[in-house]
Amino acid sequence: MGRIYYAELKAVSVTGVTAQDVWSVTAAAGEKVRLYGWHLTSNATAAAIIDCNLHKITATGSGGGTYTAEQVDEIDAASTAVIGKLDTTAGADGGGGEGYQWEQLGPLQHIYIPEMRWVSNTAQGFAFTWNTATAATVSGWFCWEEL
Questions:
Q1: What gap in Å lies between CA 86 and CA 75, rounded to an integer?
Q2: Helix%, strand%, coil% for the chain, nearest 5
Q3: What distances in angstroms separate CA 97 from CA 23, 80, 94, 118, one per listed residue?
Q4: Is the pLDDT of residue 16 over 80?
Q5: Which of 12, 67, 97, 126 is most buried when burial is the number of CB atoms within 10 A of its CB?
Q6: What is the pLDDT of residues 61-73, one digit of tens each?
Q7: What is d(CA 122, CA 124) in angstroms, rounded to the nearest whole number?
């Protein structure tokens, strides 16, 4: 078993940019990441459908910042993954994915059972991409293992 990390999204303002990575995680050179789950909520008070998807990426996007990776077990070393935050140029699509039409009035989440946990290719990762030019403020988390 590898090292497990999570990152918190707290009142993150997603702008009205189409194809923006709300979050991404990309393994360091020579490593892989296994996705355990993620959760999003929105402060929206009226339904606005957001076309979004989780997919593999071969390279991290650009134009954004980073989230802070926290160790689940404090004795683990710091994360070596690249953690993307609100990249306005989405990461290079690596195929595969899960698509969603989220109305934002309830949470959107996926917690994977062990047999369904996605594993990246070496030095690649995953991104949650917002494909609708609708602004919103979201909170939540995502969790991964570094292999």
A1: 29
A2: 0, 55, 45
A3: 15, 24, 9, 10
A4: no
A5: 126
A6: 999 999 999 999 9
A7: 5
Q: In which residue are the tokens 């999003």 written?
A: 40
Cβ atoms of 65 and 34 within 8 Å: the answer is no
Pairing mode, if any, of strands 50-59 and 92-93?
antiparallel
**Which residue carries 């953690």 as its tokens?**
83
Look at residue 69 in the predicted model and tell me its pLDDT. 97
* 22 contacts: CB under 8 Å, gap ≥ 6: 9, 12, 14, 40, 52, 85, 86, 128, 129, 130, 138
pLDDT over 70 for what percent of the chain? 99
pTM: 0.94
Torsion of CA 112, 116, 120, 126, to 10 degrees: -40
User: Structure tokens of 46?
Assistant: 């009226």
> Per-residue pLDDT tens for 127-137?
999 998 888 99
